[in-house]
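Allow me, if you will, to draw on your knowledge of protein folds for a short while. The matter concerns a single protein, recorded as an amino acid sequence and a row of backbone structure tokens. Kindly check, if you would, that the fold set down in the tokens agrees with what the sequence suggests. You will find the record immediately after this paragraph.
***
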Amino acid sequence: MVPAARRVLENLAEMEPELVGAGIFRKSGPGRELLYTASGSPGWTGAAEEVLDALEAGAGEESFDSAHVAGATGEVFVVTECGFTVIAVTGRFVLASLTAYDLRMALRDLNAVQASSQAEYGEPESA
């Protein structure tokens, strides 16, 4: 799944020229597993996990679908789909609805790769 997650983020970077950093996580038992991150910052993964922890805590018993926060210098998008979560940081003034749509479609593409791999190789869902 890591090569597929890398390709998905590379494709996103081509579609979203304002993309600063992004990471894809997969639901793993009660927690999550980082599949791939596209960021040069060593603290990026920890900060992304803090954002995801806060969203999950705020959702309570529900699971969150998406979130968008705009600041003075950039924006953060989080989308959950098909057991995957992508968190992306962009420059300011991107088209929010288009960015969220692109992120959701990227996760659906990743899910299709996973389903195809499972069908072809009989991999269990957690592999």
